[in-house]
Amino acid sequence: MPIVMTGVVIFVVALAVREDLLRHRIANSLNLAGLMLGLGLAALAAGVSGVMYSVGGVAVGCAVFVPFYLLRGMGAGDVKLMGATGAFLGPGSALLAAALALIAGCVLGVAIVFWRLIEPRLRLETSPSGEAPAAWKAAATISVVRKERFPYAVAIAVGVVTTLWLQGSLGALFVALGIG
What we know:
By secondary structure, the protein is an all-alpha fold. It has a domain at 2-99 and 151-176. Helix content is 79%, strand content 0%. The protein is built from 7 helices and no strands. The chain has helices spanning 2-23, 28-70, 76-89, 91-118, 134-146, 153-167, 169-176. Mean pLDDT is 89; it is low at 124-128.
């Protein structure tokens, strides 16, 4: 059953990444389906204790991201996706996945800011001399980037897949599929 859960959670986050990149949102139906699959597979694997373990993962996944949602740093779909993946991972692994997702999100966020700084199509107002001071340009770019929608499902996927890899679950899935 762990191999099935690993495959399903990867499928769920892959769909979420696709939707977030295309539509800049993660549908409630996808998050609900992921949650129900996680709880259902946990029930099949270990009965009531499996469900309780799964619910703990949901609670931890959501709890880590709720403060960022309240500070408007991420959308509700991201919080719900982390909760849904927590249903597959359990509390300890959900905490690790969320921490890794936050690190990945920081790295991706910095990369987006740097990309916008060097991106030639980004046109900013210039000073009267025709050139924008570097500090002003950087501040203006950060201001522009803050208003953009960030596809945080990518960071969540990185956190979840890295957690699965660290636990050996990803390797077991590859072996089961005849890949590794």
